Amino acid sequence: MDTSSLDNDTDKICQKNIDHNRALYIFYSSVVVLELILGLLLNVTVIHLFIFKLKFWKSKTIDIFLFNLVLADILLLIGLPVKAYNFQQCSEHKVVCKVQLFLQFLNRGASIAFLTVISIYRYYSVVHPGKSRVLRILRMSPQISVFIWVLLGILTIPAMLQSFIRCNISEKDEELTTIVLLREIVFFTQIFIPFFVLVYCSIRIIRRLKQKSVGDKTKLRRAMFLVTSVVFVFAVCFLPYAITRAVQLYKTGHVLPEEKDTVVKLYDGLICLSYLNCLLDPILYCLSSSKFKKLYISIYLPFLLEKVQPESAEDTGDD
């Protein structure tokens, strides 16, 4: 295979994207920059509270998982300037590209993994509180967190081994090598399996809360809203992105260049949408707690403090 010829073909596709879709890709870049600014602002302030106010390492099991979730989102956001740049330009530095890809695969995977572990922990705390053995294992949050980071670090290595992986999505067709196959298996597994786990846990938690709740409709509605919102955000941010990726892989080599260009543009747009998860995670998980929300507002938004009405603490297994 003539590698230089493939590189030239890829550069032509990328240059075509810039010439004919300039406004679209500038819009994509602007969206990424906006997500970066808002995401960092929210995640950094939240992680500041975890470290300096809540001292998460001495706190509840759920707080350690939440801290790692926010940390994964911050590390993912750090790579967004490269993504924004590559939406506007078709030039890249190979080392920077691979580092950005590694951060993207690792930290998106970590964000999904910790989100899933939190849902499983809440599921057992609410639905099966008597299964003390499982809960004892889940309460080993420091060990579980280290295991997740190490495992994902190993599984992410294939994303950096392929020399022709590019920071933009207008890449040349790949041969189905073992590394490519492993990379795609990891990619789809870490999205679809957690989604089904989240759906199952959410349904069982809602059913259990309906059985336990007697008269406290406000608390029940808040808990149900939180649980369903997590599934909704996950579905909106990741499922279209993953499905489009599957279509892109399936149609590689079976479509005209114009059709492939359309799929590439759609995929790029859904990547922007997937980064929205970094902005919504702190809101759904951290600020859903009345205690954490009041602490956050008192420190960063004190002018809203007088508008916050006392709320009963929500109990969805955050033990």
TrEMBL record:
The chain crosses the membrane at residues 25-52, 64-85, 105-124, 144-165, 185-203, 223-243, 263-287. InterPro entries: GPCR_Rhodpsn, GPCR_Rhodpsn_7TM, HCARs. It comes from the Eukaryota. The keyword Transmembrane helix applies. Pfam families: 7tm_1 (PF00001). Residues 42-285 form the G-protein coupled receptors family 1 profile domain. Keywords: G-protein coupled receptor, Membrane, Receptor, Transducer, Transmembrane, Transmembrane helix. One of its GO terms (molecular function) is G protein-coupled receptor activity. It is a multi-pass membrane protein. This is 12-(S)-hydroxy-5,8,10,14-eicosatetraenoic acid receptor-like.
